Every structure is written in structure tokens, then in C-alpha cells.
Amino acid sequence: MIEQVKKYIEEVEQAGFKKLDEVEAFRIKFIGKKGIIPALFGDFKNVVKEDRKEMGILLNDLKNGVQKKITELKDQLENLQADSSEYVDLFMPVNKEAGSRHPLSIVRNEIIDIFSRIGFNVAEGPEIEDDWHNFTALNFPEEHPARDMQDTFFIEKNPDVALRTHTSSVQVRVMENEKPPIRSIFPGRVFRNEAISARAHCIFHQVEGLYIDKNVSFADLKQTLMYFAKEMFGEETGIRLRPSYFPFTEPSAEMDISCHICGGKGCNICKYSGWVEILGCGMVDPNVLKSSNIDAEEYTGFAFGMGIERITMLKYQIKDLRLFFENDLKFLRQFESAI
Ligand code: PHE
């Protein structure tokens, strides 16, 4: 029996396999329930007294040898497999995003894209503003009724602090901090104390645009907005400017686009006029430039501001603004393919 065990020890030392299931068979052969080693241990009681010590040592050697061999072989084969497996491209894009973009994000990103193609960069400002940036620097005189154009949420403890009512506040911040030429857009959230309905919400999103340089004219404004309208709503889109009033622009205008639903023939989206309003705009009032220490003799500029909800509703024919805030999956999933 001692000879037999010595042979096994040799066999184990020399063992080498190319496949993991061969290692498994080897394991079963030696240490499986009905394997060689349990059987040898079972026979130990029959070993004559003089041989017991040697036999004990040999059996333990065999058992440890088998364990060691199995771990060794497994390690080897697993490493080999990892090395020779197919090349893994860690930079490969995932097939699909988990979830989908919100329609407002899709349209905001599209607006940013459109303006960045003609050299506008993006800036942001705070949602909690002071009176100076939201009103005074934008040429809203104190106690002037124009302040009531936008129902403001004030902070009770400090009437100087409010939630910004428009992204025009970012114009002021950028003009205070940068020297012309300035060519930027400012996307962001704005707040107005309005009753929530299909057409209005107390929280919504705007994108403001500002261009200040020498010799910027109303023609530049018109051309820029025409480019935007065609990129956003299609090449066949027409624009029309109607005179309007904003304290921070002079002259001011509101811009309509030809109704892209009925092509101008008249439908319920354009209320049978053939036109839909999409933004406010104008030439930056010299008083606004002066408030931000920009020389109004040397520089002129234009500004415009649009509601992202409004553009999105027109683009995707969404009839109720509240859908944007309800996070109903049946609504949101319709935009998965638009990413
Ligand atoms: N701030 C205006 C609004 O919220 C939009 C606007 C921006 C108009 C810039 C003119 C110029 O209604």
C-alpha cells in the first residue's frame, strides 16, 4: 500500500491539463466522495502498526499535493483564458441609455447647438437673484408698472431678493464680467407667480441670447433669428417681427414664425392666423449697457429671449404644458428616439 501511495504522489506531481474540466475530473478522482484519498483514509485502520507513521505522513503529503495541484492548475488555466479571450473594446458606446432625455432637455440642447454653430457660447447665472440684476440694471425704474409685467416671487425677509423672473438677469452678470464682443446664450429656469394651467406654469425655462459688439444692427438680429427659426422648425419657415415693449430693449419686438403645422393656411394651433409667437427681442437699451459699464457710444447689441416650453410644445405639438412636469412615463417614453 505504501508503494501504491508513493505512485499516486508521483502521478499528482506530474499532472498537467489543458482544460478546466480535466482539472475537475482530477479533483473528483482524488478527493471526490468516492475518490482515492477518502478510500485510502478508510483503509488506514488496516495498516500494520510499524507502517502507520510512514503511511500517515505519505497520505497527508498526497492530500496536500492534490489540493496544491488543483489550485495551481486552475489559476494557470483561468489566466490563460483571460489572455486569449477576444479583445474587449472598453470605449465601445453602450447600446441604449437607461431612461431617456426629457423633451425640454432635448430642445434646450438643440437650441444650444443651433446657436453654437454661429459662434454663441453658453453662460449661466443664479436662480435666486437680487433686484439689481433682475430689474434695476435692466432699466426697470423703481415703482415702474413694468415690474408688474412679470409676477415675481419675492423672499419675505428681504424684498431685495427674488426668484429670477427671466434669464435677462444673466445678461447683466455677463456684461458686468466680460468685455465686448459678447456673443452668448443663457439657458435656465425662471419663476413667476402664475396660476398653473395648460398654458402657464410658475416654473419654466428660457433661453436668452445676447450679442454686443461694434456696429451690431437690427438687421443682424433679424438675420440671426431667421437662421434660428429655419434650423429649429424647417427651411420653409418664415418669420415676422411685431413692435413690442420691454424696458431693456429699444426698439423691441416680438417674433412670430409661420405656422409649421398648417404651413400658414390657418389651424387651431395658430388660431387661424397662420403665425405663432415664439420670442421677444430687441436692441439692447443704452441705459442697460451703461448700467454694466459698457460704453454705449462705442458698442451696440441685440438681445432675445424665448421659452423652451413654448418651442417644445410647437415642435412636438404638445397641447398641455403641465405634461412637462408630471413625469408620466407614457409621455416621456415617446421621446426616447429623439435623443
Ligand atoms: N425677458 C423677456 C421675457 O421674459 C424676453 C426678452 C429677452 C425680450 C431679451 C427682449 C430681449 O419676456
Report mean pLDDT, rounded to a whole number: 91
For the termini, the CA-CA separation is: 75 Å
Estimate the strand proportion: 15-25%
Q: List the total number of helices.
A: 12
Would you list the SSEs in sequence order as H and E?
HHHHHEEHEEHEEHEEEHEHHH
The chain-level structural class is alpha+beta
* Domains, number: 2
CATH class group of the largest domain:
Alpha Beta
Task: Give a written overview of the molecule.
- There is one protein chain.
- With 339 residues, the protein is an alpha+beta fold.
- It folds into 2 domains: 2-85; 103-338, Bira Bifunctional Protein, Domain 2 (BirA Bifunctional Protein, domain 2, 2-Layer Sandwich).
- It has helices at residues 2-14, 20-31, 36-43, 49-84, 103-116, 131-134, 168-177, 218-233, 286-291, 308-316, 323-326, 329-332, and strands at 121-122, 128-130, 154-155, 158-163, 182-191, 203-213, 239-246, 249-258, 275-284, 300-307.
- α5 crosses α10 (308-316).
- The protein is elongated, with a radius of gyration of 38 Å.
- Phenylalanine is lined by residues 166, 168, 208, 246, 249, 280-282, 303-305.
